[in-house]
Write a structure and sequence with these properties.
Structural class: alpha/beta
Number of helices: 22
Low-confidence stretches: 16-22
Number of domains: 2
Main location: membrane
CATH class of the largest domain: Mainly Alpha
GO molecular function, one term: transmembrane transporter activity
Pfam families: AA_permease_2
Protein name: Potassium transport protein Kup
GO cellular component, one term: membrane
Length: 611
């Protein structure tokens, strides 16, 4: 079985380009694919708020309610703003495109850098939080969180390599299962609290007094932490092209669905955490604590507790799929514009941007390993990129409405202006409150990525300029060919290479490096018996092979100014891949050394072995 066969088994048969329309998604499937990141934030956003507040003491948990209300209001503003963006950019209005079109190249690149880092962090945070939810129900898994996380990323990467539609089918059921179970948890939790009463939670059993004092700065820190609930909201605006026609209308409807579901679940979970006295613990999430108290620990209702934990773990892991949808698409736009390697613009066999998918999987796995799968260590890096892209996108829309003055522009500019102001304010709060705990790294990384993008663009522009035929004075000419064949012995592979050399030029010479006088004399004698191709023997007092060869090639080149020099490197191909590790090392070194040298053509002539 060869590598191509393995690829077909793992990824599937290639999909023709003209079948791309059949890979588009309906609204429910698109909700599952593009909203899983935003919806899954319900599992950790409230916990991040409480994690800050309990530093004052358990009594400060009350502040989680107005903070959650403020975040829900911000969510409404952002959703309304992005509905405007979808209407204005029906072919996909990601922050990069909107900012570049309306604010210029550099704001667009800042938005792109922010989004790329955010997508990588999305995968890392989602998977790490999912594994954390799983280990809350099964503590014996705590020691294996990092390898489990890496395996999960690998599985999601594999699923996305199989194509958008296939991954959508795979991820739809867990998303709707999570929505249904959280809705059940919220409904039963509030009904139980109203009818039966609330069992005492950790905050009521063991009230604490923290080391910090309640201050505006601490409340803002809690607000900034809770704003992770908005991560992934822009995904539907970015992914308009994956919807079935009419794309823009279906995307706007799906975005509204997502906003209503996300806001309801977030407010519900925050309310339950306050009522049931849940506080953050290293060994158990607040959602786990609430579900355990609402459903109890006795069968059969305890099965609902495990179902919630399983669905939470699943949605958190699969939430990474949102990033796997948008990271490759953003990479395509950047590659198309020449800011990252052009390979990222290529679609794979399954019409997915495979290079972007693989890159995202690699970097997010590395983050999980570096931070040991600790969500609380990764979260501070998270919201900077989100709100940078939000702010630039909404500001770009304001500029667009102002320039075009289309019908209804006053209402539109007011809505996007409110979105830009709100998200910019949150960006400042997040940057200030999270700076010391890790946000500084993102503030350094984004300018570094922008610099890298511009250097790649300059390189591509320089290459295009040097290859251009515009204003060229090129005159075609017929060149003679000087052929040189480095040899280390005489065998059937060498003779085949010599035959090829004589077929392309009458001026062919073999060159042999003398590192042992006795062996060289025997070789010269055998050479004359098998071929009449001229042989040049190059001495090597230091027993080096590569340096004397390169000196000889350069000397020959200096004597043939009107010729092109072709170096034919004889190699042989083994029957099994691992056998190749035992051969062709000198040939590899020669080809590598000549790779960057000018006016030399390197040709490999292969001889195939049967066993």
């Amino acid at each position: 079985m060869n590598l191509l066969s393995v690829k077909r088994i793992l990824v599937g048969k290639p999909i023709p380009t003209d079948q791309a329309c059949h890979e588009c998604l309906d609204k429910p499937t698109a909700l599952a694919v593009l909203s899983s990141d935003a919806l899954s934030s319900v599992a950790y956003a409230t916990q991040e708020i409480l994690l800050v507040l309990v530093a004052v003491g358990t009594a400060a948990r009350w502040w989680s309610l107005p903070i959650a209300g403020a975040i829900a209001l911000l969510l409404f503003i952002v959703i309304s703003s992005y509905r405007q963006t979808i209407q204005a950019y029906p072919k996909g209005g990601g922050a990069y495109i909107v900012a570049k079109d309306n604010l210029g190249q550099y704001p667009g690149l800042v938005a792109a850098a922010a989004l790329l880092t955010d997508y990588i962090l999305t995968v890392s945070v989602s998977v790490a939080a999912g594994v954390e939810a799983l280990s809350s129900a099964f503590p014996q898994l705590l020691a294996f969180e990092v390898p489990i996380g890496v395996v999960m990323v690998a599985l999601i990467t594999w699923a996305n390599l199989r194509g958008v539609k296939e991954s959508g089918r795979l991820f739809s059921v867990p998303t709707f299962l999570f929505i249904g179970l959280i809705a059940l948890l919220v409904a039963v939790g509030f009904i139980k609290a109203a009818v039966v009463g609330v069992p005492p939670g950790e905050a009521f059993i063991h009230p604490t007094t923290g080391s910090e004092t309640l201050s505006l700065f601490l409340i803002l820190r809690a607000f900034a932490s809770g704003c992770t609930a908005l991560t992934g909201v822009e995904a539907i605006s970015d992914g308009v092209p994956v919807f079935r026609p009419p794309e823009a209308r279906n995307a706007r409807i799906t975005l509204t669905w997502m906003g209503v579901i996300l806001g309801s679940m977030f407010l519900g979970i925050t309310g339950l955490c306050y009522l049931y006295g849940a506080v953050p613990k290293a060994e158990e999430t607040v959602v786990s604590q609430v579900a355990r108290q609402v459903f109890g620990t006795q069968p059969p209702f305890s099965l609902l507790y495990y179902a919630v934990q399983f669905a939470t773990a699943l949605i958190l892991v699969l939430a990474a799929n949102t990033a796997f949808s948008d990271f490759p698409r953003l990479s395509f736009f950047l590659a198309r514009d020449g800011f990252i390697p052009r390979q990222y613009a290529n679609r794979g066999d399954r019409l997915a941007f495979s290079n972007g998918i693989l890159t995202l999987g690699l970097f997010s796995s590395a983050l999980i390993v570096i931070f040991q799968g600790d969500v609380n260590r990764i979260i501070p890096l998270y919201a900077i990129g989100v709100f940078t892209s939000f702010t630039l996108s909404q500001t770009g829309m304001v500029v667009r409405w102002w320039r075009r003055r289309e019908p209804g522009w006053v209402r539109s500019i007011a809505l996007n202006g409110l979105g830009a102001f709100a998200t910019a304010l949150v960006l400042v709060v997040v940057a200030v409150t999270k700076f010391a705990t890790g946000a500084w790294a993102i503030l350094v990384l984004i300018p570094a990525l922008v610099w890298l993008f511009t250097r790649i663009k300059v390189h591509y522009s320089d290459v295009a300029s040097q290859l251009s035929l515009d204003h060229s004075q090129y005159v075609p000419r017929r060149l003679k060919q000087k052929v040189v064949i480095p040899v280390g012995g005489i065998h059937r592979g060498i003779l085949q290479a010599l035959d090829y050399a004589r077929s392309i030029s009458d001026d062919a010479t073999a060159v042999y490096v003398d590192i042992d006088t006795q062996s060289t004399e025997a070789f010269i004698e055998r050479w004359g018996k098998w071929t009449d191709v001229p042989l040049v023997v190059v001495p090597s007092p230091t027993r080096s092979i590569l340096e004397p060869l390169l000196d000889y090639f350069n000397a020959v080149e200096s004597t043939c100014q009107d010729s092109v020099m072709t170096v034919i490197v004889p190699t042989f191909v083994t029957a099994k891949w691992w056998q190749n590790l035992l051969h062709n090392q000198t040939a590899f070194l020669i080809k590598s050394a000549l790779l960057l040298q000018r006016r030399k053509v390197v040709v490999s002539v292969r001889f195939y072995l049967d066993r």
